[in-house]
Write a structure and sequence with these properties.
The protein is of the alpha+beta class. The protein contains three helices and six strands, in the order ββββββααα.
Length: 136
């Protein structure tokens, strides 16, 4: 059997953020929040367990299986943040986040997200190849 032909149709469509994604059969909801803040450890360099809320573009909650994105993001930042938070979800599902030193997962995702987005944009033939389902 031949591969199923896949056509990525984006021309003329208004891009919309999906309401959910599926990663290895796990359903992850995508929601928006106004004036989004995330709990982060202190950034003053002091060794402390205390956390405080800081503005952020988005976050992944592995306990609730949700990605929350700031509702005020412009399209390009929204797309980058959406991919960034999906990478966090992938690390969590693979349980890689639990074996990394604290903060390493954020570094890995921050570095990989723009590389992956660039690869997807610059290589439509490769993306089509990866997304094509082969029957047979």
């Amino acid at each position: 059997m031949s591969p199923t032909k896949l056509t990525l149709v984006t021309e003329g469509l208004e891009p919309r953020t999906p309401a959910s994604v599926t990663l290895l059969s796990q359903h992850i909801g995508v929601e928006f929040a106004e004036n989004l803040h995330c709990e982060c450890p202190g950034h003053d360099g002091a060794e402390t367990e205390e956390k405080h809320a800081v503005p952020c573009y988005g976050y992944y909650n592995k306990h609730d299986q949700t990605i929350t994105l700031d509702a005020d993001l412009k399209f390009e930042r929204l797309r980058e943040t959406f991919l960034h938070e999906n990478l966090h979800a992938m690390l969590a599902i693979a349980q890689l986040d639990s074996i990394m030193p604290e903060g390493m997962d954020e570094h890995v995702v921050t570095v990989l997200a723009p590389i992956l987005l660039s690869w997807m944009r610059d290589n439509p033939a490769a993306l089509t190849f990866v997304l094509t389902r082969h029957e047979g």
